[in-house]
Each structure stands twice: as C-alpha cells, then as structure tokens.
Amino acid sequence: MYPQDLQQHHPKLLPKRIILVRHGESEGNLDTSAYATTPDNKIPLTTVGLAQARQAGTHLHSVISGNGSCPNWRIYFYVSPYERTRSTLREIGRAFPRNRVIGVREECRVREQDFGNFQVAERMEVIKENRERFGRFFYRFPEGESAADVFDRVSSFLESLWRDIDLNRLKTDPFQDLNLVIVSHGLATRVFLMKWFKWTVEQFEGLNNLGNCEIRVMQLGQGGEYSLAIHHSEEEMLEWGLSPEMIADQKWRIHANKGDWNDNCPWYFDDFFDCLADSDDYIKNSDDTNDDSLIPCTYTDQ
User: Transmembrane segments in this chain: where (predicted)?
Assistant: First the structure.
C-alpha cells in the first residue's frame, strides 16, 4: 500500500514529519587513515561528533514540539547499525523523555555505502577519482557498492516503512503527531530523497552531501504530500544542490493533493523527449511525405 492509499484509509496515521539525520563527526571524517585499522562499521564519533549529536537532539526537540506549542507528539527512530549512527542516536535521545519515544529499530538497509577495501589508502584515492570521472551513482567500488546498489536497498526499506505505518505497528494514536527520525549516512540520505521525490540520476549527481548531524525535514502538507519546503528555505535547498525546478516542485507539494502529478515537472515527461508531434495526423503526414518539418515540436517551459 502506498502513501495515497494510507491517506484515504488512515488519514490521521500518516507521520507529520519524516526527518533524516546524518551522523556526527566520526574518526573517519577527521582522518581517513582510520579506515586502514578499523572496520567501517566500528568507526566511532569524535568528541566534536558527540557534541554535534547532542545539539541535534535539542534542535529536533524544538522542531517537533514547535518550541513547546504542540503538546501531543511522539517520535519513532530508525537507525543504521554502524557505531557512529548508534552513538549519534544515543546522544540525540538525551533531549527526549521516555514517554515521548514510541520505539526504535535498527535498520541495516540505511547503512553506509560499502566502499570495499580501505586498507590501501593510495588505491582508495585513485578509486574515488575514478568515481568522480564516471559518476557517483553508477560507479561501483571494487568489492563494494555503487549508489545504485544503495538505492535498491533503501527502496526496499521504504516499502517496509509504509507497511509499518499501514498496519499501525508504530502504535500511533490518531490524536498525536507522529514524527519518524532516520539516523543514517550522507549518501543513504540523498538516495532516500531521490527515491521519495522521484529525482533523476542527473539530479542526484548535483546534490551536495549533508554536513555532520545536518537534518532534512520532510513535512506533511495540506493535501497529503510531503515537502522539504515547509520547514526549509529556498536558500537552504539551493545550497543542497536542488535546481530551481526541484525547488518549485517542493513548493507545489505543500498544497498538492496526494496522488496528483505535478504537470510542470520536466523530469516527469519533457526531459525524456526532444520533440513530440501534436497528434497522430502530423505523424501520418510526415510518413507520407518524409518531411520532418511537418512535425511541430512541443515543449514545456522550464
């Protein structure tokens, strides 16, 4: 069952917000040589990273509670199994009383991209340079994953997420605002947004990575669509690498009815065709005369 179906059958069970959080600064962020001696999943947070996570918890509490103006809210966490994400969650949790937290689930499908063998630093530098040349989405690290591989498992996670909501496994009270917080990694978060908003590979390639403990708030709009533009400013979204067209789509989602298509989205249609005939008659006339000039091009302003 998809979000539009949930909106029709359980209009009050949809989360008010789905918030994505990248982990705090890790030893690997500070010094990449850490990967030569420590498995990626065991890389810990730095002292700075722990402080960032505590600050993120305070910020999340403020966002979710409306600075104290929204009394009826609850929170549910999903977390990557890596040490740095679990530590980030632990520090975030200090900002929330037990009665506000519905539960937490470790979720392997939102783990970090597998980069393969990190033991030879010089080799990894060459591999990362190749990734930049060949594209970040499809390039697969030797013995590791591509962003496309991460996309597949994040897509599977999204299906499970909607089943949890549909079956009310999160035990949501319809009179409380539900907030889902996913503590993950930079690439997994970008792929999550790509899948959710149906962004293209080209649009993904233009996105910037999140900073440590940076958040992305997807909030439910009036008609049942989620939008980044409710909580975040246009300036923020431009800094993240969203194009003007992508930002316009986010603004449209604030008031859009669930299930509607945004006809002004070029990546839903126009990006895939150079020139389309207005009708079958133009195509027939062109076939008869072999004159391409009889087929007028139809474009949508972008």
Answer: none
Token pair 């076939």: residue:
287
Residue of 136, 139, 180, 185 whose CA lies nearest to 158 = 180
Asked about 112 being catalytic, the answer comes back as yes
- The secondary structure element, H or E, covering residue 165 is helix 147-166
CA 97 to chain centre: 27
Q: Say if residue 170 is exposed, middle or buried (CB neighbours under 10 Å; 0-12, 13-18, 19+).
A: middle
Maximum separation of any 2 CA atoms in the chain, in Å: 75
Task: Locate 299 and state its tokens.
Answer: 């474009």
Given 83, 112, 145, 225, the catalytic residue = 112
Name the E strands within 33-81.
73-79
pLDDT in tens, the chain (302 residues): 444 444 444 555 789 999 999 999 999 999 888 888 889 999 999 999 999 999 999 999 999 999 888 889 999 999 999 999 999 999 999 999 999 999 999 999 999 998 876 656 666 677 777 777 777 788 887 778 999 999 999 999 999 998 888 887 776 677 789 999 999 999 999 999 999 999 999 999 999 999 999 999 999 999 999 999 999 999 999 999 999 999 999 999 999 998 888 888 888 777 788 777 777 766 566 656 555 554 455 544 43
Domains recognised in the chain with CATH numbers: 17-220 (3.40.50.1240)
- Other beta carbons less than 10 A from residue 132's beta carbon: 9
